[in-house]
Amino acid sequence: IFAIKSSIIIKKVSDTCLDIQCYYCKKKDHIAKNYSVKQKSQQMITELTKSDALESL
Fold it and tell me: pTM of the entire structure?
């Protein structure tokens, strides 16, 4: 009986995991946990590229 209840609980958990949606990009099956890190690194790259372009002038 315990094994049956466990499999039902696991199924419910896995079903809810499939329904998650990222609030940042609206795609399914992941969350936006690391988007702020990606944005910061992308912003740093952009700033460095701009400063390099200005220095080369």
Answer: 0.38
- Please give the full DSSP string across the chain, using - where no structure is assigned: -HHHHHHHHHHHHHHHHHT-B-TTT--BS---TTHHHHHHHHHHHHHHHHHHHHHT-
Q: What are phi and psi of 28, to 5 degrees?
A: -90, 165
- Distance, in Å, from the CA atom of 33 to the CA atom of 44, rounded to the nearest integer, reads 19
Instruction: Pull the structure tokens for residue 33.
Output: 């946990």
Q: What is the pLDDT of residues 3-49, one digit of tens each?
A: 555 555 555 555 555 577 777 777 777 777 766 667 777 788 888 88
